Amino acid sequence: MTEKYDRIGTGYNSTRVADPFLFSRMEDLMQANQSGIYLDIGCGTGNYTIEFAKKGYSFIGVEPSIKMLETARQRHTNVKWLQGKAEGIPLERDAVNGALASLTLHHWKDIGRGMKELARVIKPGGSLVIFTSDPEQMKGYWLNHYFPTMLEDSIRQMPDLNLIRTSLQHAGFKIEKEESYAVRDDLKDHFLYVGKNHPKLYLEEGIRMGISSFSDLALKKEVQAGLRQLEKDIESGQIQDIMDSFRNKNGDYLFLRAVKS
């Protein structure tokens, strides 16, 4: 089966770059050391993998998309890049000291199996850092107003927090920390809710092409109609009222740190 990002990966790396703040949180939560070996599962074109490598950490990037891996290999030759999925990681048991799973859980076919695979390849005492979004958080995105079907599809494929917790525990991980993240004005990694505070960003085709919800799940007619209305509301100022109506205290994304027992 053709992987999603083999089909929609064109131009992905021009808008999806490592964000300094998010990387700093990943590094802090990972508690990595330069004598260990670490895994980035669902690494894409290696944006965060490469940032870790630049700081002297030894990383392995695993990604199902051949197109993404080709780009990653061209960008950094000192990282070991492997094709594979979370449900079938091409590594031996206890091969790594820890792992990162950033904005990838919603692409997994089987969360439980993926967590068990990570538990298999992570050494006892090793850490797993997850960056994801909970469906309840996504219901608070103002994008729901303009693209209801697109968001409904996106929310449906996103594993909820209780499933993640249960899957981690069944796989032998202990959750040590949960930390919400609210999109910052200076976000450099242009994933789904990058335009939370800058709605004009969604009018740029290049931004939308790097977001799987727009480029793969979305219904073309709904997106076109939603963009027209969004543009009108930005011009009239109505967008501010809509954004204000969706403000909440749930955060937009979520970090989890878990340790293998």
Provide a short characterization of the protein structure:
With 261 residues, the protein is an alpha/beta fold. It has a single domain, classed as Vaccinia Virus protein VP39 (Rossmann fold, 3-Layer(aba) Sandwich), CATH 3.40.50.
- The whole-number mean of residue pLDDT values reads 93
> Which percent bin holds the helix content?
40-55%
Reading off the top of the CATH hierarchy, the class is best stated as Alpha Beta
Low-pLDDT stretches = 6-10
CATH fold topology: Rossmann fold
Characterize the biggest β-sheet.
Answer: 7 strands, mixed
Provide the CATH architecture: 3-Layer(aba) Sandwich
**What's the shape?**
globular
β-strand amount: 15-25%
How are the strands of the biggest sheet laid out side by side?
3-2-1-4-5-7-6
Amino-to-carboxy terminus distance = 35 Å
Oligomeric organization of the protein chains: single chain
Structural class: alpha/beta
Total beta strand runs = 7
- Taken together, the total number of domains comes to 1
